Amino acid sequence: MPSNLKKETQATVKESSRVVGEVISSSITDFVTELWSKDKDGEELEILRPNFGSFLRVESVEEGITAYAVVYNIITGPYDAQHKPSALGLSRQELRMEQPHIFSLLQTQIHATIIGFKQDGQLHQYLPPKPPQVHDFVFVADPDEVADLTADQGFLRLLTNVQSVPIDELLAASIRQAQACHRDCKKDYHAFLVDAGKALSHLIRDDYDRLVSLLKKIKPY
Fold first, then answer.
1. Which residues lie below 8 Å from residue 133, measured CB to CB, with a gap of 6+?
2. pLDDT digits (tens, 9 = 90+) for 107-141
3. How many CA atoms lie within 13 A of 159 on its CB side?
4. pTM here?
5. Are both 131 and 169 inside the same structural domain?
6. For residue 63, what are the contacts with CB-CB under 8 A and spacing of at least 6?
7. What are the C-alpha distances in Å from 165 to residues 18, 72, 73, 141, 162?
């Protein structure tokens, strides 16, 4: 990327209130994002923490691909094995007053599974031809992007490929998040929930009790 374009992109990202961090590991199916906690000058940033089941956008400028993904895990821990946290018996407020350096030794990583991408202005609800690149910037997807992406319920089938978390919880959380986006965009979110329920009935048609339990988790709120 030309240096002037890179600087312009970084400036745009820094000004965005919906930036999460950047990709530190990726594949065709998923990626890991490290949340930003400090800017280039070492100043503390207000960390934007996406919710479980929420939707992210990764902009790969060099590839011309914007990937969309759903958060399936959130992990906070030390940067290395030599700085493991231990119980100190202090509240978070007391820790910030007495040992503020403790929090600088922690990092939060977001694991997200890819459910679609946009290329040349076209939205596709299947895996991209190339994964996001390491150090690509990651954003919380805008409500209108989520509404467009989830207008077709095919994204739910891609979510069933996740193995590391309870899949029913992930399905329900993503539907609740998408429902809120449809509502924010003044779209018929009740119709969206009906379509989601129908899609789930096809995915879990052989387990009635499981289906009923899952449907209860996505009822309107």
1. 23, 26, 60, 62, 63
2. 899 999 999 999 999 999 999 999 999 999 999 99
3. 29
4. 0.84
5. no
6. 130, 133
7. 25, 7, 7, 22, 7
E strands present in the chain: 19-26, 30-35, 55-60, 65-78, 106-119, 122-124, 137-140
54 with 75, same domain: the answer is yes
Q: Which of 87, 111, 141 is the last residue of a domain?
A: 141
**Tokens linked to 27:** 């594949």
Q: How many residues comprise the chain?
A: 221
The number of beta carbons lying within 10 Å of the beta carbon of residue 56 is 24
Residues 79 and 202: beta-carbon distance below 8 Å: no
- Helix H or strand E encompassing 198: helix 189-203
51 and 89 within one domain: yes
